[in-house]
Amino acid sequence: MSASYDDKSRKERTSSADRARRRLWRVALLITLNGMIGLFIASFLFQAKPDTLVKFFKQRVAAQPAGPEKQENEKMVKELEEKLKRDPHANVVGLAIYAFLNALVIIGAVRMVRAKSYGWGMAASIITMIPCLTGCCCSGPLIGIWGLIVLSSADARARLSPSAGNVVGA
């Protein structure tokens, strides 16, 4: 009788661990993809010349119908052009920070899926949750919140706990 009880509890623990592993894998995959999109955007913007971007924005604004929105957009493009003329290296610093944050997100997601670190997983989820810091400002917050929910579950905590051979926060 006790052998069947032990088998049942072992199966429950195994299914719980498998469920946690699958949930962590799914959210980590989405966080990684979001970070990769961010790195792609950063690399594209690093290569693009600021003058080319201003020219592109001017063309888009010129194609808009006349009205207050067009005037506001023209003003914003002019401000952007003046800002880039005053400090051409500001764009590089901002893009470097953006690329660095996306690299941190990818590292955190990989450490999370490999069950190496709860802290890195939390950091990746929180950074992903902040709009415009990673690849997609629309899906990033949703993915980040999902990551926090998955990481706060008891199954995920058990999988990432130090007693499972992992170092929490390392």
Outline the fold blueprint.
Blueprint: H1 2-47, H2 50-62, H3 68-86, H4 90-113, H5 118-129, H6 140-152, H7 154-159
- Helix percent reads over 70%
Structural class: mainly alpha
Strand content: under 5%
Mean pLDDT reading: 82
Question: What is the CA–CA distance across the termini?
Answer: 42 Å
Query: Treating each run of at least 4 consecutive H or I residues as one helix, how many helices?
Result: 7
Q: Globular, elongated, flat, extended or rod-shaped: what is the shape?
A: elongated
Explain what you see.
Helix content is 78%, strand content 0%. Helix 2 packs antiparallel against helix 3. The protein contains seven helices and no strands. The chain has 170 residues and is mainly α. The longest helix has 46 residues. It has one domain.
Summarize the structure.
Helix content is 78%, strand content 0%. With 170 residues, the chain is an all-alpha fold.
What are its keywords?
mainly alpha, 170 residues, elongated, disordered C terminus
